[in-house]
Design a protein that fits this description.
Order of helices and strands: HHHHHHHH
Mean pLDDT: 77
Shape: globular
Strand content: under 5%
Number of helices: 8
Radius of gyration: 18 Å
Structural class: mainly alpha
Low-confidence stretches: 1-5, 220-227
Distance between the termini: 74 Å
Helix content: over 70%
Largest sheet: none
Number of strands: 0
């Protein structure tokens, strides 16, 4: 009896983590400062790691558990630390994010993208062996992926664009962990290394933009040409 109830408890905990994961994605869309956006990304990565571990517990999949633990190390500890070391404090605490649309309009678009993700996920769930995890993870993962794309598109500054790109990766893996029985740990290690290198390069470029141009807008890269 307890053994039969255990998967149900895990599914309920995963549903809770999934809801908070999506809530963080909406928070990143509404965030006005890079510091808040980074903290929401860290929270989203935490809930993604929790979900991956829960999915890997029953049935037992050590690859998924390792992915969750690796996610804690790279996206909650290493990437924020790296950005803190390479980007000035002004970018995080005192400067508002420059974006195309205002927050209310962005939230309405985010809600529409979430609805689209739920409709798009229906044929995907029919194509795979639907489980209790996939029922929630696939639509929420697709929604987070679309919200990451939207965040990347409307933001004008380098750090928020980087966070949007990493949020897209969170959404893709959040959906993938529920439908792939054995996720390759080597693939996750390669992606984690690429994410660290991307954060380092973007941090250095952002610092260079700020020092030479006085702004952190990604378009300022065009001004960093050799005289």
């Amino acid at each position: 009896m307890a053994h039969a109830a255990s998967p149900a408890v895990l599914i309920e905990l995963n549903d809770l983590a999934s809801g908070l994961f999506l809530l963080c994605a909406f928070g990143m869309v509404a965030a006005r400062q890079a510091q808040a956006c980074l903290r929401l990304f860290m929270a989203q990565s935490f809930f993604f790691g929790v979900s991956a571990i829960l999915v890997g517990v029953h049935p037992l999949a050590w690859d998924l558990i390792a992915v969750g633990l690796l996610n804690f190390v790279t996206k909650i500890l290493l990437i924020p630390w790296m950005l803190r070391r390479t980007v000035s404090e002004e970018v995080y605490e005192r400067r508002e994010i420059v974006q195309v649309l205002n927050v209310p309009a962005s939230l309405l678009i985010a809600l529409g993208l979430t609805i689209v993700a739920y409709f798009v996920s229906e044929p995907m769930l029919r194509a795979v062996a639907e489980t209790g995890y996939a029922r929630v993870n696939v639509p929420i993962g697709l929604a987070a992926l679309l919200l990451g794309i939207y965040t990347l598109a409307v933001r004008r500054e380098a750090v928020p664009q980087l966070i949007g790109l990493l949020a897209m990766e969170n959404g893709a893996f959040f959906a993938g962990t529920a439908i792939v029985s054995g996720l390759s740990l080597i693939a996750e290690l390669a992606i984690a290394f690429d994410a660290l290198m991307l954060a380092f390069v973007m941090g250095v470029l952002t610092k260079a933009i700020q020092e030479h141009v006085g702004t952190t807008e990604a378009g300022g890269l065009a001004l960093l040409k050799e005289k």
